[in-house]
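As agreed, record copied across for absentees:
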Amino acid sequence: MQKIHHGKYSFLPPASIRPEGWLKRQLQLQADGLAGHLDTVWPDVSDSKWIGGKHEGWERVPYWLDGFIPLAWLLDNEDMKARARRYVEHILSHQQEDGWICPCEGSERRQYDVWVVFLICKVLAMYADLTGDKRAEEAVEKAFRQLNSHLNGCTLFGWGQSRWFECYVPILWLYEKKPQEWLLQLARKLRTQGMDWRYVFEDWHFEKPDPKGCWTFITHVVNIAMALKAEAMIGQLENAPVHQNAKHALELLWRDHGMAACHFTGDECLSGTSPIHGSELCSVAEAMYSYEHLIRFTGETFWSDVLERLAYNALPATISPDMWTHQYDQMTNQISCVPFEKDQYPFLTNYEESHLFGLEPNYGCCTANMGQAWPKFALSAVMKSSDGLAITAIAPVRAKVDVNGVPVAVRIETDYPFKNSYRVHITAEKPVSFALKLRIPGFAFNGTIDGQPAGDGVITRCWNGEETVSVSFRTETKLRERPEGMFCLEDGPLLFSVAPSTEWTRVEYVKNGVERKYPYCDYHIRPTSDWNYAFAGEVFTREENEVGAIPFSPDAPAVTLAAQMVHIPWAEENGACTPVPQSLEPLGDPVSLRLIPYGCTTLRMTEMPLIK
């Protein structure tokens, strides 16, 4: 049977990893918030057709389970595990005899978009890895046999045609367990019928956003975020090196649609570089998942850098600090989260409430899908290499893994990204030689390992008993140039913003039979202090504090930068600032202002001019 190309690293078994420190607190916030309670408050999950109910029977329950299941096991929460099992048990017991696994009538199958088959099989693969439940593995095999037959007469369309490569995750997972030629034939069939993303990026002609209201599958921001890993997935099957298509694609996206947070706009299709055009929360979660796979395949520091930048900026910025509400679209310069007037919103393919914090602003896909980002990030912090272990994202986790036949425990102790150091504790049950690849970010300098120059960051030696390795590095506080004469302020992986004081107003109501009430109501958020600033110098003072109960707290941020800022004329139009200020003429003398991490903000000014 054909051997699969795994790439530079491999993921550790998900059951072997646990969060610690601030990351555990972040995951607990998620469990205590909306993503941890959708099965009790949102009919599309609580009364879904997936469990015999009357509400949505397509992607929302699989999306939710994709984050809820790993979250439950990462936190070892028995109540959450039991709630997850209830859904999985119903799905397994209601799979059709021919393998069809989705909740629809036989007459509806030809019109049923099989994207969700890819998704539910990915969910069941994760569940099988966490629980050892062989029935989940058998269900995936049956579903794929049916899909293989289904595609003979029902060619891919819609989301399935755009996201065909996502199915490679569970297909190749199953192939590792049961190497059967028909699985590879299914993978090739999907590729043949699916969208050619390599061609999209090689023949790039999406330099400008489409006209307002023009929606396409090709420029859909979530499809593109997923597609960044398409070549890597193909590389597994073809036993070939990863094509450089992913890096080229990301460079094009940053050039033409880039955001200060190292993401790209899409509300909900690609929307240029304006700081008041948004980007969909789903695109952040899916880009992170793509970067995790690209780290696994390439081992390149570049992909770890962009993963951390999203995890520590764009992800927390678009979810409320208590994690009970979220935005559909986040804006780089976001001075208010109040509904825009009808047809007066700055978004190109979303609507007047897309930037609100609430239960289901705009569409419910992000409500269901946002929960995968933090758990999968935790599962990707440590990976296995051919000669040992690699720290692939700096975050506080611990893991147990077999290395060369010896049980080894690894624990990362850190307050990064708020502080520039971490310690790795290795405990080997008996002497064992292996290489430990330590992460030195690409944006760092003067990296040291146990006080000595870090070099290539690899320690190869015989490990015995308990040993600790200390890593530290420096980062530069600097202004980075943005389009239209604007700048953003960054230090290491963190982006910093002016955060005006805010007033939150609860909005409780019922829409289409779905209740919004505290704590999962909508909120209207208004500024109660000035936001019309420009940078007045390039000298900044960093202050570090303790990482609190809410790691990305707007009230008690773990790190701040003091900067000289000056008021300038900058207009507000219908609840948004204009893309650029009206004038660079100072309205007074410079003042010292405290800027906080972008991920700690709800309202913010991030891209601003520099007045020297």
